[in-house]
Structure prediction request, 244 residues.
Amino acid sequence: MHKAGLLGLCVRAWNSVRMASSGMTHRDPLANKVALVTASTDGIGFAIARRLAQDGAHVVVSSRKQQNVDQAVATLQGEGLSVTGTVCHVGKAEDRERLVATTLDINVKAPALMTKAVVPEMEKRGGGSVVTVASIAAFSPSPGFTPYNVSKTALLGLTKTLAIELAPRNIRVNCLAPGLIKTSFSRMFWMDKEKEERMKETLQIRRLGEPEDCAGIVSFLCSEDASYITGETVVVGGGTPSRL
Prediction:
């Protein structure tokens, strides 16, 4: 092939990639799917809910407070996304049952933290995908946060176990482990500029993460592109050491 022809082909390919990355082309990888995202009215959860909806899923957002749910739903619906919401405290049995009932009404297939409660319905629909959310603290515990660290480490084991148990039912289970993401939950680590700079020095990628850095990973894990992936934990931590 002549150099000019090869260059032209490369330019056309580059333009195609640029169009795709800028959102000019969109293939809705989660079309006809329903995603239940708990704790999803702020921070990482909200970014995940938005991305799943942008990728074609109908999303059910939930939180402990009605006003937070209403605000999140209004924001996402205002962006033209297919979203509904419900109040749920995942620590209360009655709320778990009510949330499951709500999501069954719209044929939910992708819950977050209530896997066992919805597995029968997911199985009826031919399978599904579960993404749990752990933390970099599961690998690199933070002093003074013992219960949190232990709970997140346990979640890695739960993900592995559920992946084995549910694979015969065509249900995949994977885990997201965010590093230091700039949210209200982690503000104690970045509100002070000097402290933020010290935190950046510990990272290979010298910036703090944003909620959107996590959202695309979750969308991928829920999509058919990840149909051969289960039992894995994806760390989004800017290069923070992440091995037990």
